[in-house]
Design a protein that fits this description.
Blueprint (H helix, E strand, L loop, with lengths): L1 H15 L1 E5 L4 E4 L8 E5 L4 E8 L2 E6 L2 E6 L3 E2 L12 H5 L21 H9 L4 H11 L5 H10 L8
Antiparallel strand pairs: 1-4, 1-7, 2-3, 4-5, 5-6
Length: about 160
């Protein structure tokens, strides 16, 4: 009788838990629904989690025997496709696909100079330093710690409360 009562109490909770997926590697599983709370661990992209509770900008989740909180925009209802460049800043801010300059079909690629554009720039008098500066910008990376500090300082994303 007691066991059936416990099952009846837990049944709605178990039925409402949805499986979501971590969007980005090194997503923080936190002790509380706050970006400033203790980090219990970091989850990899594509990790399935059970959403137990929703609280404004954070979801309480369970995975691998651990329970904690994740910023809701770091989760997706669909399993994310595995792409190259998962750790880049644009991916963190909303998703972007990297394209090497040589893969561009036009003279104005998403990043950097295509071989045709580079040759055109040289013919028009661009200095080797300027061309190298564009290449350096293309290879620029922001570490996740720096991005996290930027978001915290600007009270953006998971820090906006």
């Amino acid at each position: 009788m007691i066991l059936s009562g416990v099952v009846m109490l837990l049944l709605p909770h178990l039925a409402t838990a949805e499986t979501w997926y971590v969007k980005k590697s090194s997503t923080k599983l936190q002790a509380e629904a706050s970006a400033r709370s203790k980090v219990l661990g970091k989850l990899q992209k594509g990790t399935p989690v059970k959403v137990e509770k929703k609280s404004r900008k954070f979801f309480q989740v369970s995975t691998g025997g651990k329970t904690g909180w994740i910023f809701r925009f770091k989760l997706s209802k669909k399993a994310p496709a595995q792409k190259q460049g998962d750790g880049d800043m644009l991916g963190t801010l909303g998703g972007s696909q990297k394209m090497a300059a040589r893969e561009s079909a036009s003279g104005s690629s998403i990043r950097g100079l295509s071989p045709v554009s580079e040759e055109h720039a040289r013919k028009k008098g661009a200095t080797p330093e300027s061309i190298q500066a564009v290449k350096d910008m293309e290879n620029f990376k922001v570490r996740s710690e720096e991005l996290d500090r930027f978001l915290q300082t600007g009270k953006l994303g998971e820090y906006s409360q």
